[in-house]
Description:
Structural class: mainly beta
Strand order of the largest sheet: 4-1-6-7
Low-confidence stretches: none
Number of helices: 1
InterPro entries: GLEYA_adhesin_domain
Domain GLEYA adhesin: 14-85
Pfam family, one: GLEYA
Largest sheet: 4 strands, antiparallel
Protein name: GLEYA adhesin domain-containing protein
Organism: Fusarium oxysporum f. sp. vasinfectum 25433
Helix content: under 10%
Order of helices and strands: EEEHEEEE
Amino acid sequence: MGSSLPWSLEHILFDNWGYFWLGDASYSWDSNSWVIEGSFSGPNPAALWKTGGSYQVNLNKGDAIPFTYLWANGGGPGGSNLSVKTPSGKVIPGFQGFV
């Protein structure tokens, strides 16, 4: 297969709550095994923003990796974003090209 290359999940943002599981953990939904968790809620959202940011995974050409991406909104407008950064540095916004 060759050497693995780093791919990054970038700019993980959740309004109001979100979780991201990767690999075998994506089948379990175990709250202790997510790689990214975030929330945005409360009377002063700027002070309560908690996000996991980004996560890097090394893949070989042709690898497929299971993941679960759960996002929930509670009242009012909400939003969520997940971008993928390729080994060459190109950022693919949202799920463009993956859906």
